[in-house]
Write a structure and sequence with these properties.
Blueprint: E1 4-9, H1 16-30, E2 36-41, H2 47-54, E3 59-63, H3 80-86, E4 90-93, H4 96-102, H5 106-118, E5 122-127, H6 131-135, H7 139-150, H8 156-159, E6 163-166, H9 180-198, H10 200-205, E7 207-211, H11 219-223, E8 230-233, H12 240-247
Parallel strand pairs: 1-2, 1-8, 2-3, 3-4, 4-5, 5-6, 6-7, 7-8
The chain binds phosphoenolpyruvate (PEP).
Amino acid sequence: MRRRVMAGNWKMYKTIAATSAFIEGLKARVASVDHCEVVVAPPFTALRAAAEAARGSKIRIAAQDLHWDREGAHTGDVSAGMLAEAGATHVIIGHSERRRDHGETDEVVNRKLRAALTGGLTPIVCVGETLAEREAGATRQVLDRQFERGFAGLTSSEFSHIIIAYEPVWAIGTGRTATPEMAAESHRYLRELGRRGFGETEAEGLRILYGGSVKPDNIGGLMSENEIDGALVGGASLDVESFAAIVNYPRARSAG
Ligand code: PEP
């Protein structure tokens, strides 16, 4: 059984003080959680504070990006080793906002992914189509391209350390959520790509999170799909009650 992951992506929100207070509050609310992993991705400036506040708890800390080099003349960038030193165990790669704001291509995603794996961080790699692409019936082609180029050259063993987040761009921050069925269909397709590229065992073990306007009131429906192995949550992860409600979604089955 794949262990689910509930990850909060804070984007460019929260000070160091607000981060520490949030993590303290979340610790109490997830202390008895064992049905999923809990990950929080604060901005770079608050990584260290988040990791310190989370010490001794089940909460894991993710960065929102990294550079592919170990060090060098890259103003404004941060390497995998620096993130790990600050206390991050995970890193989000290829979020659509980075693709949009910083022109990140699938090739860049691939370089960052390799750097994360080399640096011992668990990558959460975002893929997903825009509204125009969905309406043109091109969702699978987009996923094909992002998968093929983003994961190019990885070994099956490397692939088995990756988490994918399926985030249809039209659902991010818009209040429009993919239905559980729509998300599950794309997740099934991504798993099939994993099977073809890396093998049956790796595909079956691959965790695929859904992201796009996940809220406490729609998480239950999404998690009723066995294909959906958790969520990457933006806006609703900024409020501790709301994120804790998502982590503690109503469970009818003994979810792993
Ligand atoms: C995200 O930032 O990855 C995201 C899915 O945002 P939201 O939940 O706000 O749509």
